[in-house]
Design a protein that fits this description.
- By secondary structure, the chain is α+β, with helices and mostly antiparallel strands.
- It is built from 2 helices and 11 strands, in the order αββββββαβββββ.
- It has 2 domains: 120 residues, no CATH class; 103 residues, no CATH class.
- Strands 1, 2, 3, 4, 5, 6, 7, 8, 9, 10 and 11 form an 11-stranded antiparallel beta sheet that branches.
- A hairpin with a 6-residue loop joins strand 7 and strand 8.
- The longest helix is centred in the first third of the chain and has 53 residues.
């Protein structure tokens, strides 16, 4: 009938032509999109590594500022960093202050005296002095005034208000006696050790270990250092340096950390920390 038109679809040749043209266009689009997409992936990986390295170095910087004066040690290969971590400090009542009978001084003569009162209010919150903390007096880093030899460090057994009870009195038995000129003391919560094990291509790690003990003079060569926690992986290189500044009670700690991925992406960050060594 004249009013009807015959139905007509695509021929096989037409369908093949459409697929070929579509394939060509898709290939052209993929060529133009490949570089921006790869750049985005590479940038995201670099940002991720930078965040990890930055957070790690910030953590180390924050804790180094709380290091007990003259307690920072760095291994010969510059891959292990160790120090005693302080939580607070204060002044003790000194015999020379002629205190009233209600206040007990930190006595540097009789070894049997295991209690003393701190001057002022006792710290609270995260700085609260607790049993198993350490009281360290005048840590100059040389025996007997070196916490690592335990000549000036005593374990806390109890705290009642401003009165502190010690497990022993090494301050009285030290020879010579080394009281603080300003009647100051620091409270140490334990020992922090950072250990870096780099590997080519970013297969290494950086870990932080903590123990509530004071690690002795052979501390850097006597792992384990306490409970370890992973701070960063993908570590390709690292280095720690400790430099005592001449004619000052201060030191400079330099930290360098490089991360890398197997695809060749890498980042390198460095920090310097000023450490106060006034005991």
């Amino acid at each position: 009938m004249n009013g009807l038109r015959s139905a007509r679809g695509f021929t096989l040749v037409e369908a093949i032509i459409v697929m070929v043209v579509t394939g060509i266009l898709a290939g052209m689009v993929a060529v133009f999109l490949k570089t921006p997409v790869q750049n985005y992936v590479d940038t995201a990986e670099r940002v991720d590594m930078t965040d990890v390295a930055d957070l790690t170095l910030r953590r180390m910087t924050r804790e180094l500022r709380l290091a007990l004066p003259n307690s920072v040690l760095v291994s010969a290969d510059r891959r292990t960093l160790q120090f005693q971590l302080t939580k607070t400090g204060g002044r003790y009542i000194d015999v020379g202050d002629s205190p009233p009978a209600t206040l007990l001084p930190l006595d540097f003569s009789p070894a049997a005296s295991l209690q003393f009162d701190m001057a002022g209010a006792a710290p609270t919150g995260r700085q609260q002095i607790l049993a198993n903390d350490w009281i360290v007096v005048y840590n100059v880093g040389v025996a007997p005034a070196d916490a690592r030899t335990f000549g000036n460090a005593a374990r806390v057994t109890a705290v009642a208000g401003t009165r502190i009870t010690l497990a022993s009195n090494p301050f009285a038995t030290a020879s010579p006696s080394m009281p603080s000129p300003n009647s100051r003391f620091q409270v140490v919560s334990g020992t922090v050790t950072y250990v870096c094990v780099p590997a080519a291509g970013g297969g290494g790690t950086l870990t932080r270990s903590f123990t509530n003990q004071i690690i002795g003079l052979n501390g850097l060569g006597a792992p384990p250092f306490g409970a370890p926690a992973l701070l960063a992986n993908l570590v390709s290189s690292c280095s720690f340096d400790y430099t005592v500044l001449a004619n000052t009670n201060a030191a400079l700690v330099s930290l360098s950390l490089a991360l890398a991925r197997s695809n060749g992406e890498s980042i390198n960050l460095a920090r310097q920390v000023h450490v106060d060594n006034t005991p």
